């Protein structure tokens, strides 16, 4: 998952390197790698003004590498600040043999933060396994993604969070931009979301950090984390885009950064206004036209 290197010295000191950054050409030892990753995440936080005094940050903690690494980074960076609070929030989608909330609980305890868990069943009245039984698995990722976002926002709001920290990394951001291009979805490509009452602002401190580096950071600072993949993920368009992008980026290492920068710059270049969204009075989620969250939850329940 990550680029181990052997018998090479760190480009910044004489210790043994643990990783090669192909896009920068640097070999980095453990300490310089951790410092480099954390500097990237801190820069993303500063540039996007993600965290301010008084924030209560709910970290969406699945127990996987990305969310676990993010929780570790945030507690290392902000854990001693009295004006910022951090908690962990896990969503159990109801997929047999996949999600183990206790693993996330142990990681939260190791990071010294309160842990909360909500389920699809208690908030949406169904589970992903039940949705697949009723409707097949062709659109399982669509249903699961929408309901999971609804559960996270509802739970974070109820817990008094002002920010919802997501573990999306550079690969995720690049894939999202490319997916919008491949679908011809100009609206999503230029959309600039506006703050809405009742909707907890999402922040992504790892948006500028490659997935391989997040995985290595998790391995070095946490050790154990959930590594199983969702049994329904093979149906997602993102899986195809990930494979295409990884193959191309192997030959052109800066590609993912280029796509992320494109996604950041297009709304500015197009001078796009803030997205014309409303808050659904029924579920509290943002929508335009018809509330997609309510529609899919009704379908998932068999309505």
TrEMBL record:
Sites where the protein binds Zn(2+) 2:
280, 283, 291, 294
Gene Ontology biological-process entries: tRNA wobble position uridine thiolation
Where do the annotations place Zn(2+) 1 binding?
10, 13, 29, 32
Q: Name one Pfam family in it.
A: ATP_bind_3
Positions binding ATP in this chain are 60-62, 66, 91, 167, 172
Residues forming the 2-thiouridine synthetase TtuA-like N-terminal LIM domain are 9-34
Question: InterPro entries annotated for this entry?
Answer: Ncs6/Tuc1/Ctu1, Rossmann-like_a/b/a_fold, TilS/TtcA_N, tRNA_thiolation_TtcA_Ctu1, TtuA-like_LIM_N
Q: Which terms are listed as keywords in the entry?
A: ATP-binding, Metal-binding, Nucleotide-binding, Transferase, Zinc
Q: Does the keyword DNA repair apply?
A: no
Superkingdom, natural source: Archaea
Signal peptide (from-to):
none
Q: Which GO terms describe its molecular function?
A: ATP binding; metal ion binding; transferase activity; tRNA binding
Q: Which Gene Ontology cellular component annotation is one that this UniProt entry carries? A: cytosolic tRNA wobble base thiouridylase complex
Domain tRNA(Ile)-lysidine/2-thiocytidine synthase N-terminal residue range list:
57-216
Q: Which PANTHER family match?
A: ATPASES OF THE PP SUPERFAMILY-RELATED, CYTOPLASMIC TRNA 2-THIOLATION PROTEIN 1
Supply the name of the protein: TIGR00269 family protein
The organism encoding this protein is: Methanofollis fontis
